[in-house]
Every structure is written in structure tokens, then in C-alpha cells.
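Entry for the shared binder. Reason: the reviewer on the internal report wants the predicted structure included alongside the sequence.
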Amino acid sequence: MTQIKQVNCPTCAKQVPWTEESKFRPFCSERCRLIDFGEWASEKKVIEGESIYPTEDNPEENLQ
């Protein structure tokens, strides 16, 4: 008997089985998936670091 891996939903922390039937994995539901997407889209969640895109003040700043 193989034990099914469980992960925590990144939004609500509910246990989610990591199987093909878990349609929204790692999220427990479409609602939690959309909440997470909205947080990234509104920049509540960000990956810290320097931008790879040039700024208006100095367009050649990141081209070196």
C-alpha cells in the first residue's frame, strides 16, 4: 500500500493530497488558487531583488 503525499494549501493550509485527482494542487480549491493569484497580481506578494528591467531614470543601468 502506497501512502499518498499530502501538502498544505499555500493559501489556507488545508491538507491536499498530491494526486492527479487534486485538480488545483497545490491549492485545495480554485478559490484559494485565485486568492493567491490576486495577491501576486496586486503585488502583495513579491520576490525581492533588483529589477532586471531598465528604469526610466537610467535605461542603461541594467544593461551592463
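Summary line for the report: The helical segments are 30-41.
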